[in-house]
Amino acid sequence: MPRSLSAEQVEDFRARLCEVAQHRFATQGRDAVTMRQLADALGCSPMTPYRYFRNKDEILAAVRTAAFDRFAEALEEAAAQARGDLRAAGQAVGQAYVRFALGDPDAYRLMFDVAQPDPERYPELGRASTRARRRNSGAATTMVAGMRTRQSR
What we know:
Largest sheet: none
Shape: elongated
Number of strands: 0
Helix content: over 70%
């Protein structure tokens, strides 16, 4: 009889699986990663990951969603600290972008270099990706609009 896991234990396993998967997907590519490899890395049976995710594409979507959310949060925090100073906000967002890329290169690769099969099947990934892209381009758009306003005075 399988033992019942608490919600915390389920989330802990999912987080550990996603951590292993992020690195593997980023360094080996989606096609080179198997569910069996992920299970081996976690020291569990090959079927265990299937209790938490339907397949590796769902794991990839979860990992990419989390990466886009972390990226967006970093950009949002940087912009918020500028407190209305457009030039400072643009600079802060640019620096946050670079810090994220250098500080979490696996996540960065997954966001921008690894293709997601059937992305429309993962609405949370679409939401996170859109949020990050809007925050990134929004900083530049706001800065340009502010500069135009200043020039027209």
